[in-house]
């Protein structure tokens, strides 16, 4: 069997409830790309010290499941990338719905010379305060060129060249990675692109279950830069977050 041309990496900690809702959208998007490209892809779910049936649930969909016990999102993504066989990498989360065209568009961008890129998220929380916070971050990302890790992609070569995600950061590791990837792309004359014609749809579970004030504390430009390498500072995001 030929090696996969693209690998989707999905970190997952206690996501047995969410995987049945979102993983099928990833598989459908990957299947669309396989049909149009004639290539084969793979999905790797990185079970990150789950205490529920995350690994079994992921395996029931026929994807590859590996384990990473250290609770750090950058390390989990790097573990998935290290196990990947594809020459193109696509990173998303266990609670993100992909549009059908997502993987095809990302692969096409890389085939056309891009070092990588991202698809912006569309959050649709129930409360007005949460919607305003999401709108602020959309405006911020548009004006500062950042991108969230909910849907980032890179060629395996570019990923290795920049050293992957920093595993000493517990927050904003995706923005920091994208900054380095963009700088690498400029040097190599390989653009890093934002696929603005598409949107991925992440779960709004935090926005809907945490108060707007709590979300504002965790998601504002000051806190987003505060003690990013402190597991204690970000323990609530990792340990007591909504599941």
From TrEMBL:
Keywords, sorted A to Z: Cell membrane, Glycosyltransferase, Membrane, Transferase
Biochemical pathway: Carotenoid biosynthesis; staphyloxanthin biosynthesis; staphyloxanthin from farnesyl diphosphate: step 4/5
InterPro entries, per the entry: Glyco_trans_2-like (IPR001173), Nucleotide-diphossugar_trans (IPR029044)
One GO MF term attached to the UniProt entry: glycosyltransferase activity
UniProt superkingdom: Bacteria
Subcellular compartments: Cell membrane
SUPFAM superfamilies in UniProt: Nucleotide-diphospho-sugar transferases
Main location: membrane
Occurrences of domain Glycosyltransferase 2-like (ranges): 7-123
Keyword Translocase listed: no
Record's function text: Catalyzes the glycosylation of 4,4'-diaponeurosporenoate, i.e. the esterification of glucose at the C1'' position with the carboxyl group of 4,4'-diaponeurosporenic acid, to form glycosyl-4,4'-diaponeurosporenoate. This is a step in the biosynthesis of staphyloxanthin, an orange pigment present in most staphylococci strains.
Family listed: Belongs to the glycosyltransferase 2 family. CrtQ subfamily.
Name under which the protein is recorded: 4,4'-diaponeurosporenoate glycosyltransferase
């Amino acid at each position: 069997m030929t090696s996969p041309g693209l690998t989707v990496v999905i970190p997952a900690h206690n996501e047995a409830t969410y995987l049945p809702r979102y993983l099928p959208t990833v598989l459908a998007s990957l299947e669309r790309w396989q049909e149009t490209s004639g290539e084969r892809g793979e999905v790797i779910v990185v079970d990150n010290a789950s205490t529920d049936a995350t690994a079994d649930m992921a395996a029931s969909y026929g994807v590859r499941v590996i384990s990473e016990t250290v609770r750090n999102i950058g390390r989990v993504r790097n573990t998935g990338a290290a196990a990947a066989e594809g020459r193109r990498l696509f990173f998303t989360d266990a609670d993100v719905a992909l549009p059908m065209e997502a993987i095809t568009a990302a692969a096409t961008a890389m085939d056309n010379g891009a070092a990588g890129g991202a698809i912006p998220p569309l959050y649709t929380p129930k409360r007005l305060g949460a919607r305003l916070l999401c709108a602020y971050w959309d405006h911020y990302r548009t004006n500062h060129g950042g991108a969230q890790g909910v849907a980032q992609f890179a060629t395996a070569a570019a990923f290795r060249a920049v050293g992957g995600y920093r595993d000493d950061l517990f927050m904003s590791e995706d923005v920091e990675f994208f900054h380095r990837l963009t700088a690498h792309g400029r040097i190599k004359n390989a653009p890093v692109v934002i696929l603005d014609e598409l949107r991925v749809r992440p779960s709004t579970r935090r926005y809907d279950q945490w108060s707007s004030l709590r979300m504002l504390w965790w998601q504002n430009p000051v806190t987003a830069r505060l003690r990013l390498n402190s597991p204690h500072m970000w323990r609530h995001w990792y340990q007591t977050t909504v599941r």
